[in-house]
Write a structure and sequence with these properties.
The protein has one domain (about 5-10, about 30-330). The chain is about 80% helix and about 0% strand. With about 325 residues, it is mainly α.
């Protein structure tokens, strides 16, 4: 990562993949109102800002505060690499960056990453499901209200789980850590493997303790849920504005249902940026909501051109900035 020809090559590949897969030139033929689309693009800044605020709050909660200005490129890059790699495996790079640049232990950064990815995806799933009740799925007002009450309660499920003493990471640690006498009786040839298991168990204990600190703190949980809700609301507004630019209008809650469920489909597909799977699902849901097929397809294209592409470019720029920073630190260290 500290070799310019490596990160330049990766940056070119990232940029090429983004442009090729999002096909912004096709969006140019939709005839949409570009003044409205300019607002959609500008709202990406709010999304990045909320990611940064959320991450900064979580980093402080695990005892390793990082300045928000330093987190902006980290969260932008994390979003891009997370979308490009199956099962978000690229997030490992975020842990490495936080370790090398800010001295954050892997256990603490892993806890933050798990919260930001899995808890946020869980909130997305339950709220998008609630939004679908009464919009995509016909339902009475009382049932719609009940769906939202259930979704709000379900959004706090990880907090309830840890408060009840159910700690999944701690359970996994028991199977990783070598047991006392058994570890002592291992042959010398197995010592390296035992040592690795001990280090992994120690990291998992840190992850468990950090997640527990996040999940049982009412201020941290409140901040996390609210900042995540603002991100989701902003993305719903972006889709709503895109449809408005095409002369179509649906309720904002319906826009969130379509976008949230389509995003979940993209996550499950494990395809880069959910390309293909998310687009097909969202197009189908928009058609169910009464949007003409041509406008639904155009909306999917414009969403890629005005949201996926700009956020991907921000991630690519962050990759370049982070690697230049690494080169500068390396040069400073060698001068000393």
């Amino acid at each position: 990562m500290r070799r310019w020809y490596v990160w330049v090559s990766v940056s070119v590949v990232l940029l090429g993949l983004l442009v090729w897969r999002t096909k912004p030139w096709e969006a140019l033929a939709t005839g949409a109102d570009w003044r409205v689309l300019a607002i959609v693009v500008a709202l990406n800044g709010l999304v990045i800002a909320m990611w940064t605020i959320r991450s900064a709050r979580l980093m402080a909660a695990v005892g390793h505060p990082v300045p928000m200005t330093s987190l902006v490129p980290v969260v932008s890059f994390a979003n891009t690499i997370n979308n490009l790699t199956p099962a978000s495996t690229g997030e490992a790079l975020r842990a490495v960056i936080l370790r090398r640049r800010h001295g954050v232990p892997y256990g603490s950064s892993t806890a933050v990453i798990l919260a930001e990815r899995f808890w946020a995806i869980w909130i997305m799933a339950v709220t998008a499901g609630a939004a679908a009740i009464g919009t995509i799925i016909p339902a009475s007002p009382p049932l719609t209200v009940l769906a939202w009450i259930t979704a709000i309660g379900a959004s706090l499920a990880p907090s309830f789980t840890y408060r009840a003493g159910l700690r999944p990471i701690s359970f996994v640690t028991r199977f990783v850590e070598p047991r006392g006498s058994a570890a002592e009786d291992e042959p010398a040839s197995d010592a390296p493997r035992s040592s690795r298991r001990l280090r992994l168990a120690a990291m998992l204990r840190t992850v468990d303790a950090s997640l527990g600190g996040i999940a049982v703190s009412a201020p941290v949980v409140t901040s996390f849920v609210l900042s995540t809700a603002v991100v989701f609301l902003t993305t719903a507004v972006q889709l709503w504005l895109i449809l408005l630019s095409l002369g179509e209008s649906i309720p904002l809650v319906a826009a969130w249902a379509a976008l949230g469920l389509a995003t979940i489909a993209g996550v499950v597909s494990a395809l880069p940026f959910g390309l293909g799977a998310a687009d097909v699902v969202m197009t189908g849901l928009l058609i169910i909501l009464g949007v003409p097929a041509s406008a639904a397809v155009a909306a999917a294209l414009l969403l890629r051109a005005t949201v996926t592409l700009p956020l991907g470019l921000a991630g690519t720029a962050s990759w370049i900035a982070l690697n230049r920073g690494a080169e500068a630190q390396s040069a400073t260290g060698s001068d000393r």
